[in-house]
Amino acid sequence: MISKKYSQTLFMIFMSFGMSVIMSGVVTAVNTGIADGFLERYFNSWLFAFPIALISAFTMAPIMRPLVNKIASKD
After folding, report:
1. DSSP string of 2-31?
2. Based on C-alpha coordinates, what's the Rg of the chain?
3. What is the largest distance, in Å, between two alpha-carbon atoms of the chain?
4. Looking at the predicted structure, is the pLDDT value of residue 75 above 80?
5. What does the alpha-carbon distance between residue 49 and residue 21 come to, in Å, rounded to a whole number?
């Protein structure tokens, strides 16, 4: 089992993975259609999107966490 101290990091990795899978599939389908070669285009799109999503999550989290804490109620 992985230590609890890594839970935030794992959450961002899994969330980035899931979001990039969904977004790559939707954007690829909208832009090129679901036709011959879709899975290859989708996979190539995801290979590009996942690292960007991961970097974005780690970059934006420290900025967004204080903002969310500021606007969320403390009840």
Report:
1. --GGGHHHHHHHHHHHHHHHHHHHHHHHHH
2. 16
3. 53
4. no
5. 8
